[in-house]
Specification:
Layout: H1 4-14, H2 19-26, H3 30-37, H4 48-60, H5 65-86, H6 95-139, E1 161-162, E2 175-176, H7 199-208, E3 210-216, E4 220-226, E5 229-236, E6 241-246, E7 250-254, E8 260-264, E9 267-268, E10 279-283
Antiparallel strand pairs: 1-2, 3-6, 3-8, 4-5, 4-7, 7-10, 8-9
Helix pairs in contact: 4-5
């Protein structure tokens, strides 16, 4: 016959542990533990209760709980067959037995709910980080890559332009196809009787270089290159402005032409284009006059 009880008792005594100490740690009654050590499994409750007692006892002694439970099941089957032959009756489950099982079931439920709560927190954190990352991506406009400006001082052909409604019969040039932009500084008024697009204005530009001032009335991404060197590449907000200088050429790349007002060498310049329109112009001393208002 399987002598499981003696094995457990010897292991307990080898560890120098009293039976009452095991009972205090496992919350199993001393009577039930004594029955296990006597191999009197008929004193234990049936089903999961008896296996739970033996597993807890073996774990306290540092034994292989699964192997001990397997031995217990084998010994219990043998005793039950013998008891069935004698017509023995299994004792009822005590209140201590029910309390022990209830504690184990409560611990399992608490562990399960804790794992569920942890999973919810992790999912919420991942969703929040993903939303923040997408928000930053959406708030940062793509930088406009401006082509390398020519280092030659020779005249540069400007992009196709769209003529605005003529303001006077003497209008001689069209505004570049671009979005409207607000000037960074109040343009200097053209002296009375002087045409800003006259040869004298062109000569002054060729002598003094190019000075551009602009002011924006709405969000607008602007890239500017002065004499082949990148001057600015940033998003301007309503009310922002800047002053730019160049000697040979100035590349002016605007993402919202209708939000920009500008001037060249102190003279008001023609509107760049419509709101939301992307415009790129190249300004040199030779072609300044075609961008100025008449």
């Amino acid at each position: 016959m399987n002598d499981l009880g003696s094995k457990l008792k010897r292991a307990r005594e080898d560890h120098g542990i009293a039976l009452r100490d095991i009972a205090a740690r496992t919350k199993i009654s001393v009577t039930a533990l004594e029955a296990v050590e006597r191999n009197d499994f008929s004193r234990l409750p049936g089903g999961i209760f008896g296996r739970s007692f033996v597993r807890a006892y073996a774990a306290e002694l540092g034994l292989d709980a699964d192997a001990i439970v397997a031995e217990f099941v084998e010994a219990l089957d043998e005793q039950e067959r013998e008891a069935a032959a004698r017509g023995a009756i299994r004792p009822e489950i005590t209140d201590d037995d029910r309390l022990f099982l209830a504690r184990q079931q409560q611990a399992v439920r608490m562990l399960r709910w804790g794992l569920i709560a942890l999973a919810v927190v992790i999912v919420a954190l991942v969703v929040w980080r993903l939303h923040a990352w997408r928000s930053r991506r959406a708030a940062t406009p793509a930088a406009v890559t401006a082509p390398a400006a020519s280092s030659s001082a020779s005249p540069v052909t400007t992009p196709p332009v769209v003529s605005p409604p003529p303001t006077s019969p003497t209008s001689s040039s069209a505004a570049p196809d671009a979005v409207s932009v607000v000037n960074a500084a109040t343009p200097a008024a053209t002296p009375s009787g002087t045409d800003a697009s006259s040869p004298s204005a062109t000569t002054a530009a060729a002598t003094n270089g190019i000075a551009v001032e602009f002011l924006v009335s709405d969000d607008c991404w602007i890239v500017a290159t002065s004499d082949g060197q990148r001057s600015i590449s940033e998003l301007f907000r309503a009310g922002d402005g800047r002053h730019l200088d160049a000697m040979r050429e100035l590349l002016f790349d605007v993402g919202n032409a209708g939000a920009v007002e500008w001037s060249i060498n102190g003279h008001p310049a023609k509107p760049l284009g419509r709101a939301g329109q992307h415009v790129r112009v190249v300004i040199t001393p030779a072609n300044v006059a075609q961008f100025l208002q008449p």
